[in-house]
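job 3f2a | input accepted
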Amino acid sequence: MRDQLVEVLGVDPDSIAPDTRLREDLDADDFALIDVVEAVEAELGERTVGLSIDDDDLVELRTVRDAVECVLARLRSGNESAT
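job 3f2a | predicted structure (83 res):
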């Protein structure tokens, strides 16, 4: 997640912590968050078939922690449906 935030938003990696606010602290708008999500999906999609995050979920993402938890929840739900 950190690599994608750095790449898409052009921020210093040291400025990213779990409680960093995506919009306020990193100046991410909705379009940038879509790009970050797509980058995460591309990265993890190579190893995790079917990882997908709905654009509607982006509204709920406030912090880096929220984004990570969203990805983890999607990974868990994907693993449960695969078994």
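job 3f2a | The CA atoms of residues 18 and 65 lie 5 Å apart.
job 3f2a | closed
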